[in-house]
Amino acid sequence: MFFGEHSGANLRVKPFPKSQLTTFGRNIARLRERANLTQEKVAEKLDISARHFQKLEAGTVSPTFGVLLRLRRALGCTWEELFESLK
């Protein structure tokens, strides 16, 4: 994973290739289910819309660095679990 330009208060993560976004989304879904949380509850913890979170899980948008930090905390997972199977 590489970091891109600093955009306002959010450090942007360079977009993942589509295949990696799909895998990342599956990782999020698995970890969310393990934590017994709904998409809406995780979105609330991340301070993003439920629709945006659905897009993250579907692998159609790349997260900002801030969302990654909050996602790890909200799901109670390690970086390794979050990025499992991404190469």
Short description:
This protein has 87 residues and is mainly alpha-helical. The chain contains five helices and two strands; from the N terminus they run ββααααα.
Structural summary, described in words:
By secondary structure, the protein is mainly α. The chain has a single domain (3-80), classed as lambda repressor-like DNA-binding domains (434 Repressor (Amino-terminal Domain), Orthogonal Bundle), CATH 1.10.260. The chain is 56% helix and 10% strand. It contains five helices and two strands; from the N terminus they run E-E-H-H-H-H-H. It has helices spanning 18-34, 39-46, 50-58, 65-75, 79-82, and strands spanning 3-7, 10-13. It has a two-stranded antiparallel ribbon. Strand 1 and strand 2 (10-13) form a beta hairpin. The protein starts with a strand and ends in a 5-residue tail after the last helix. 22% of the residues are buried.
Layout of SSEs?
Layout: E1 3-7, E2 10-13, H1 18-34, H2 39-46, H3 50-58, H4 65-75, H5 79-82
Antiparallel strand pairs: 1-2
Helix pairs in contact: 1-3, 2-3
CATH classification class? Mainly Alpha
Low-confidence stretches: 1-9
**Number of DSSP helical runs:** 5
CATH topology: 434 Repressor (Amino-terminal Domain)
Strand order of the largest sheet: 1-2
- Label the overall shape: globular
What is the N-to-C succession of helices and strands? EEHHHHH
Structure keywords:
87 residues, mainly alpha, disordered N terminus
